[in-house]
């Protein structure tokens, strides 16, 4: 018996060695979607209870966590997710310490440019093979490589948001009613004046946001400029090729000031956050009637009395008829910071139909994409389907301040806050913005064109 026992030892040791060498495949992901518990920002994709709790809470991170869980079940790769509002700062810290996440989802497109130039971001051309790219084309971000200057795919858009929308509550006392929403700037000015004449507050203004306030105001300027001057001028301005003091840019600021009565009763807007401002539409009586906000605001509206419906109309044009079809959008874009087989598998999974289906269903049909193969009828008939169509048709121009260098964006955000408080500062503010533009190196600007269906 002893000989048999001793004979088994090498076998057991060898087996144990094989088990010890078996590696659990893992990867880390950072994104800006917040979890329901601010004190526990990290979630493991294998933690069923935690993922289900996030889904039950309807947190921002919940749909993406559902996608990561499905990815883990399909591939066996475990994912650690970190949600943070200040994803740019967290990512910068990780890169500087040579400890970046494997994959990051970035809401600011210019961050991609920064990391491409520094060589910290890996191209995705070999990860997303050509045969898969027909419908993916609108989702792929091509940037010039750090060494040879040749355009390569460095980003995959995984979530899209329509921004050229104005929200209202049909039938609200003193509001815009339900018939014939304004289709032109003149009609929008008339509606705003009518609401004000009846003693109401036309616009729900909230400039506050974390980590940086002011971007709701930059959205306004961008949308007006796009619909006044058209996509070609908008692209050139976003790429840093047009002076802020130009007549067209100045006209956009003046138009916003006139519409929202800048300097008059706008002090609360500087203290109100973007996600609470529009809730005033649901008060009884309404505290305000119109909210210029992106499609991601729907979740906040749905938290109100469900018996009070809400709707949107497209941002009115004030330029040539061709600008009516132009829409401003924003995106969340995936970049790969560690070139590993696990990271490549996740990128490929996020580019596929199964991930989009899980995301849409877990997001309660409020998760949208730029994918050209999107079937809007997959969304419920109503505003969800209309938003899906907005994001896959017409001319879609990316958020300009998301593409601008960080210093330019920060100055832009600060300027809109100052202008809203005191419109008499406009000329000085535009001159200061032009100074920042002139001092920003040319290679820090992005030149991404608008998308056309």
UniProtKB/TrEMBL annotation:
| SUPFAM superfamilies per record | Periplasmic binding protein-like II (SSF53850)
**PROSITE patterns referenced in this protein's UniProt entry, alphabetically:** PROKAR_LIPOPROTEIN
Instruction: Give the InterPro entries listed for this entry.
Output: SBP
Superkingdom to which the source organism belongs: Bacteria
Q: What is this protein called?
A: ABC transporter substrate-binding protein
Protein's organism: Micromonospora rubida
Organism lineage string: Bacteria, Bacillati, Actinomycetota, Actinomycetes, Micromonosporales
